[in-house]
Design goal:
Length: 154
């Protein structure tokens, strides 16, 4: 089970939402976004820099499965990026089902009286926080969510 500060990653086409947990693994806070450029390589080095800056001890990647639970093109992309990340550094990486995190983030923002108009960055970072909160809650109850990404050694 991953413990300590964790960096959650909500992978998107244009933005990658980030969230960070506290050292005790009890709270998750939005931590901004990384903007993606279409046609460019995934920003793995930037993910590593953000994790280093936050003193993270592991990554939680949202795995975007279809509502049925099946793999999608995006989930395959996330698996590939998580694999490359695990091969470039030593922090543990886990993939956790992220179905409905964005809708939960939108609902929560609206329930707090906020508008989501023009706040796509906030929504993406908040979705990463929703993902991380779910992981942390399960861990507090002794449940290990998701699957570990193991670096393939060549």
């Amino acid at each position: 089970m991953l413990i300590g500060k964790l960096l959650a990653v909500d992978w998107g086409d244009k933005r990658i939402g980030l969230a960070i947990s506290d050292e005790l693994g009890m709270l998750a806070s939005p931590a901004g976004v990384i903007l993606r450029r279409i046609g460019k390589r995934p920003p793995i080095a930037e993910l590593m820099r953000r994790a280093d800056d936050a003193q993270a001890q592991g990554y939680i990647f949202g795995l975007p499965l279809a509502p049925s639970g099946n793999e999608t093109d995006r989930s395959k992309e996330v698996r590939d990026v998580a694999q490359k990340l695990s091969e470039r550094q030593s922090l543990p990486v886990r993939l956790v089902d992220e179905r409905f995190t964005t809708s939960a983030a939108l609902r929560s923002i609206k329930e707090q009286g906020g508008s989501t108009r023009g706040r796509k960055d906030d929504v993406d970072a908040f979705a990463a926080a929703v993902l991380l909160e779910g992981y942390l809650r399960a861990a507090q109850q002794g449940v290990q969510l998701g699957e570990a990404v193991v670096a393939a050694h060549v």
